[in-house]
Amino acid sequence: MNILSKLRKKIKKSLIKSKILINQKIIIQKNKNEKNGHYQLNNLYSISNFNNMSPEILSKKIIKNMSSQKMIQKMVFSKPCFINIFLNSVWIEQSITNLFSNKIKTKFKCNKNKKNVVIDYSSPNMAKSMHVGHLRSTVIGDATARIMEFFGYNVIRCNHIGDWGNQFGMLIAYLKKVKKIKISKIKNISIDQIEKIYCQAKTLCIKNKDFLKKSDEYTAKLQQNNQYCYNIWKKIIKLNIKENNKIYKLLNISLNNTHIIGESFYKNMLPNIIQDLIQKKIAIQKNHNIIVPLKNIKNRKGKTMGVVLKKKNGSFLYSAIDIACMKYRYEKLKANIILYYIDSRQKQHLKQVYKISKLARYISQKVKVKHHMFGMMLNKKNKPFQTRSGKTIKLLELIKESINRAQTIILKKNEKISKKNLLKLSKIIGIGAIKYSDLSKNRTTNYIFNWKNVLSFEGNTSLYIQYTYTRIISILKKDYKNLIKSNYTIKISNNSEMLLCIKILQFKEILYQASKKGEPHLICNYIYELASKYSYFYEKYHILKIKDKKICITRLKISYIISKILKIGLNILGINVTKSM
Ligand code: ARG
Fold it and tell me: Is there a single domain that holds both residue 244 and residue 309?
């Protein structure tokens, strides 16, 4: 059930019936103030204008044609130029009754969509451990993968790990030249040590030109399959993948080793691609480098510059790999849609890659390629979220802190909880909280991370939703089974119930919008509104104590459906619920 698209289709039909020309999408929105109607037709003016007709006359035609529609109670023209739409309560009752079954989940699912969607997310650099900067891509990308799957897309998760760049040349050079470490010792090195060495190597590259040269040489050697470099590389990668898998598991992220198609995967494609681009006169040689001169790409001085694909020492660059990757995703993975969850700083890079791939016909125009970029996680002072001393915070540390804080909160409410339950519950709550705090923010803007808001029972937080869920479960406990069996149909007895039911029916249109835009925060906003509307209802009206059996069953059924939606909603976002808190 998608009310919005149903209304749109019906209004379109009614326009066609009246021979009205339609040159635009019919825009219908939810009304902010429900007293004025549940929905509103917004572009009456431009449609009437296009047809040289007054909006009043057009609205009369639409309203007349729509009068026989079961879903509509009434439609009212409103000045300056809207039509307000009121839904019919009998139709709502029937729709909710239809929805009521054990398989609510499948009723919201849509299995028609068989398109292939490649989702590039998480994709950390393999010379470092994951830090808070990886949270957004990992969490939003994963939620989108689940949403798209729910909508029937064939989702191909791609963890494009950074395992083929100059960071490895630096690491190898430092391990060999400065640390003088033997390869056999590498397996005893921790990922923290690797990261430290990488940072030191980076600093040395800036200070010392010879070291930079050596690093570049090692990058090229690695890329040309030098056995010594390859062995070191392999060990570091293995170590890091193992660490990252622990984080994914803890965070309930659906990535595993089968989703790793990292930079190095494309190594054998690179020489041919360079040759092909030269042959097609897209790439040229300049100062012994291979570049693609793109007119609208300028350096800081405003001079046109090119995208470097291969350096004169033979090493391939990030852009070359992403071009090969785009080609592979189109040709081999048969992608219809490719979504990149990468931060906004790589906007230019992806634009260039897409442009070159299109020029070379490595990807069809028909494929939807979208960069779903996101803002940064900031502290209260609007600065990047870091430790007090300005260091990056490891993702694992953030997760552990959240679990610890959740434990304190749980213990405050229930001192007697068993150790096992405490651990289980603190993971559900603590991990849900950091994920939700990230997912609930508008994807494209920066947001401020504040522990107090993250783990609060008030406001748009996972704790609030999880808590509302437990409240409904405790109501349902008493009458749960009889309720499921009862054949009573839903009977709406007041406007609050009506609004709750409409809200329930809007779930699918929200899922649809979230899947189209890759914006999970729309789902968060929705389940938060649903939970608050329910809490308000729960405070104001009796559910179990009401004498009228029909009303009681209706309210229980509504409660049941809402509990299901809250659970499905959180699960789609990769967050778990608990029956008691
Ligand atoms: N490894 C990159 C980074 O850490 C992100 C890779 C994103 N995906 C891609 N196809 N370029 O910034």
Answer: no
> 3-class SS at 576?
coil
As for how many domains the chain has, the answer is 4
Residues 320 and 351 in one domain: yes
**474 and 406, same domain (yes or no):** yes
Burial tier of 79 (Cβ tally within 10 Å: 0-12, 13-18, 19+) = exposed
**Angle at the Cα of 470 (from 466 to 475), degrees rounded to 5?**
150
Is the residue at 270 inside a domain? yes
322 lines ligand 1 (CB under 6 A): yes
Within a domain: 445: yes
**Best of 123, 156, 351 to mutate for ligand 1, by most ligand atoms within 8 A of CB?**
123
The CA-atom distances, in angstroms, between 395 and each of 4, 149, 434, 500 are 40, 26, 11, 38
CA distance 375 to 384: 11
Quick check: CB of 352 below 6 Å from ligand 1? no
Does residue 292 sit within a domain?
A: yes
CATH of residue 272's domain is 3.40.50.620
Per-residue pLDDT 10s for the chain (581 aa) are 789 989 999 999 999 988 988 888 999 999 988 889 999 999 999 999 899 999 999 999 999 989 889 999 999 999 888 999 999 999 999 999 888 877 888 888 887 778 999 999 999 999 999 999 999 999 999 999 999 999 999 999 999 999 998 999 999 999 988 878 777 777 778 888 899 999 999 999 999 999 999 999 999 999 899 999 999 999 999 999 999 999 999 999 999 999 999 999 999 999 999 999 999 999 999 989 999 998 777 777 777 778 999 999 889 999 999 999 999 999 999 999 999 999 988 999 999 999 999 999 999 999 999 999 998 899 888 888 887 777 889 999 999 999 999 999 999 999 999 999 999 999 999 999 999 999 999 998 899 999 999 999 999 999 999 999 999 999 998 777 777 667 788 899 999 999 999 999 999 999 999 999 999 999 999 999 999 999 999 999 998 888 888 898 899 999 999 999 999 999 999 999 999 88
User: Is the CB of 329 inside a 6 Å radius of any atom of ligand 1?
Assistant: no
Q: Does the bond joining 80 to the residue before it have cis omega, within 30 degrees of 0?
A: yes
446 and 360 in one domain? no
Distance from residue 159's CA to the centre of ligand 1 (Å) = 9
For the chain, how big is the Rg over CA atoms in Å?
Answer: 28
Q: Whose CA is nearest to atom 6 of ligand 1?
A: 123
69 lines ligand 1 (CB under 6 A): no
Q: What sign for the dihedral angle of Cα 487, 493, 499, 502? A: positive
* Ligand 1 near 133 CB (within 6 A): no
- Pairing status of strand 154-158 against strand 284-286: unpaired
On whether residue 92 sits in a domain, the answer given is: no
Boundary (domain end) residue, out of 252, 277, 307? 252
Q: Is the CB of 162 under 6 A from ligand 1?
A: yes
The verdict on 176 and 146 lying in the same domain is no
Q: Which domain-ending residue is among 45, 66, 87?
A: 87
Cα 137 to averaged position of ligand 1 atoms, centre (Å): 10
Residue nearest to atom 5 of ligand 1 (CA): 123
* CATH code, 83: 3.30.1360.70
Q: Ligand 1 test: best mutation among 125, 137, 159, 342, most atoms within 8 Å of CB?
A: 342
**What's the CA-to-centroid distance between 123 and ligand 1, angstroms?**
5
Domain, as residue range, for 297: 116-161+263-371
